[in-house]
Task: structure prediction
Amino acid sequence: MRTSMTTAVLLLFLFMAGCGTLDNKTILLNVGDSKKAVLDVMGTPMDRQISGQQEAWQYCVSGAGFGWNDHKIIWFNAGHVTGINSYRSGVSGCQGGIQPVRWENAPDSVLEIRRR
Result:
C-alpha cells in the first residue's frame, strides 16, 4: 500500500514538473534590455514581427498546465525592450497557437538610454 502511494506521489510530482511556463526566463528581463540580452535569456523567438521601429518577438512553451500553451510577446522599440505580454492558447502545439501581433497592444513608452 505504501509503495503504491509513493509511486502515485512521484508520478504526480513528475507530471507537475513537466508543466512549464516562460515566467522563469522572462523574470530575468527588464525594460531597456537589448535584443542581445533577450536572445541570451530566451533564445531564438518562434515568431518575429516588425512595424517601423517596433518589433514583437513571440515565444511559447507547450504543457503550461492541462493542455495549455504559455505565450510571451516581448516588445521592442528602437532595439530595446519596452514590455512583455502573456497569453495562453489551447491549441495542440505552440506553432498553431501563435496569434498575429496587435500593435495597439504595444506598450506606450519612450526609452532614453544614457551612459553613466
